[in-house]
Amino acid sequence: MLQRLYSRVLRLATSPQAPVWLGVLSFAEASVFPLPSETLLVPMTIARRDLAWRYALIATITSVAGGILGWMIGALLLDLVAKPVIHFYHAEATLVSLQEKFREWGVWIILFKGLTPIPYKFVTIASGAAHFALLPFIAASLVTRAARYFLVAGLLRKFGAPIETFLEKRLPLVTGIFAVLLIGGFVLLRFL
After folding, report:
1. What's the start-to-end Cα distance of the chain, in Å?
2. Model's pTM, two decimal places?
């Protein structure tokens, strides 16, 4: 089923409505959808490297908007909507763990987890379920989602198709290293 969905998303990457579909995918991925935004962002950027920054911006804005929906699902509709979504992914333990981490680490969880392979929808729903403040959630989401999408778009813009295979195989590693560097920078700024 996921392979068919992935194939369909790749076909959308070459359509004239690709930017709209990128926005729809990024919005949905932040709250309920199983495929990451890069599924569409990568082939679109490879096809039109001159539009890399526009695509990254679309993915960022719509992902954060979808993240707000995920936050609302977690905060307001935990039993009705969020728990079935979490159960679908067999991630009940992940939700509980993230809720505890939000209470302990706050915005740092969003900054770090938003760049890692953990689906962003878990971060958004867990932050709402933990009743993490909405404005810091939005600000941290903007930072982390922009960092992720602009990093991918920038690499593809500069290196083109050869980097696509590298990113497909090592995106979690690349974004993980970037997350460590980003958070390390914030920590250094805080203590300097």
Report:
1. 51
2. 0.76
On whether the CB atoms of residues 91 and 125 are closer than 8 A, the answer is no
Q: Give the CA distances from residue 128 to residues 6, 22, 69, 118, 137, in Å, rounded to whole numbers and listed in that order.
A: 29, 24, 9, 16, 9
Cα(17)–Cα(20) distance, integer angstroms: 5
DSSP string, the chain: -HHHHHHHHHHHTTSTTHHHHHHHHHHHHTTT-SS-THHHHHHHHHHTGGGHHHHHHHHHHHHHHHHHHHHHHHHH-IIIIIHHHHHHTT-HHHHHHHHHHHHHHTHHHHHHHTTSSS-HHHHHHHHHHTT--HHHHHHHHHHHHHHHHHHHHHHHHHH-HHHHHHHHHHHHHHHHHHHHHHHHHHHHHHH-
Q: Give the residue numbers spanning the domain of 62.
A: 2-191
Our count of domains for the chain comes to 1
Average pLDDT, the chain: 81
Q: What is the pLDDT of residue 189?
A: 47
Q: How many alpha carbons lie under 13 Å from residue 31 in its C-beta half-sphere?
A: 23
pLDDT at 83 over 50: yes
Pair of tokens at residue 190: 């805080």
CA dihedral of 138, 139, 145, 151, whole degrees rounded to 10: 170
Q: Residue 34: pLDDT band by 50, 70, 90 thresholds?
A: confident
